[in-house]
Design a protein that fits this description.
With about 290 residues, the chain is an alpha/beta fold. It is about 35% helix and about 25% strand. Strand 3 and strand 4 form a beta hairpin.
Length: about 290
């Protein structure tokens, strides 16, 4: 099994994160992919860095490609990347991937979710928050909801620096992400490395930056898998089919967290009834242990 970290030469933030990983820890060059070096961690032999030359969100099936060309079989994929937003707010973010609706603009497959890694993603969020504060960064640290490609068969997360070209080129935020990834990998490589008593939830409601889910994750013993924002609901993309896919792509899901203030009462009732009909409870923050 391998943890595959993917960077892109066309992505300045991802390149900076990769360079920080190489500086902050010890790696051996073991092969080449796309005429770019492939690195293996000298102590954590199952951690590998590979580099692509196109956009990360559109490089479909990178897991299969690496297995076919290099014999590397990923069990977990981590993309290190830039994040772009209209507001340009400086951010450090992490999130699962997939599309609730159309896939034309941002890669992946239509109405298809990639298997998430809730406990890895949530632990990474907390480490990024800690390292951003220790480095006195001004960046907002948060989840993003599930969005964009590429498509893979392997559990995947993104770790990103946003949200402008100026921020992508800075070393400090990239270094905070790299340090967080190394701290994560010192203890956990795969979802099954975590204790079973960490409840995994699907989040529903709220905005793109998942403010309530981020708040809960930073305060409570919990992990969030796929997250559905209100704008996807209002856009008509969330039907029975995609709800079922959300369950299937969130391993070990134990419950649903509803951001009720961002949902209509009729929607709260609808989702409560639907998930409870599947034997999945609605969980409130009061039911979760403090960290």
């Amino acid at each position: 099994m391998t943890v595959l970290i993917i960077s892109s030469t066309e992505d300045p933030a991802g390149t900076n994160i990769k360079n920080s990983l190489l500086v902050e820890s010890s790696w051996n060059e073991i092969d080449a992919f796309n005429n770019q070096p492939v690195y293996q961690h000298t102590e954590m032999k199952d951690v590998v860095i590979a580099t692509i030359k196109d956009r990360t969100i559109r490089h479909e099936n990178i897991d299969k490609e690496l297995q076919e060309k290099l014999g590397i079989k990923p069990h977990q994929v981590i993309f290190i990347s830039r994040h772009r937003s209209k507001t340009g707010e400086p951010t450090l973010t992490t999130h699962p991937i997939g599309n609730y609706g159309d896939a034309t603009s941002f890669g992946g497959k239509q109405k298809t979710l990639v298997r998430s890694s809730p406990r890895l993603t949530t632990h990474l969020l907390r480490l990024m928050k800690k390292n951003a504060e220790q480095s006195k960064l001004y960046h907002k640290v948060c989840f993003e909801v599930t969005h964009h490609g590429p498509y893979l068969d392997t559990p995947t997360i993104f770790a990103e620096v946003g949200s402008t070209e100026e921020e992508w080129k800075k070393k400090e935020p990239a270094n905070a992400v790299a340090k967080s990834l190394l701290e994560l990998l010192e203890n956990y490589h795969y979802e099954e490395d975590f204790p079973d008593d960490i409840p995994v939830l699907i989040g529903i409601g709220g905005g793109h930056y998942a403010p309530r889910f981020t708040e809960v994750a930073l305060a409570k013993k919990v992990a969030f898998g796929h997250m559905i924002p209100t704008y996807q609901i209002e856009g008509g993309n969330i039907d029975d089919e995609i709800l079922e896919k959300t369950i299937q792509a969130t391993p070990n899901v134990k419950g649903i967290y509803l951001h009720k203030k961002e949902l209509k009462k009729s929607q709260v009732t609808q989702y409560r009834n639907w998930f409870e009909g599947k034997g999945i409870s609605i969980i409130s923050s009061k039911e979760l242990q403090d960290l």
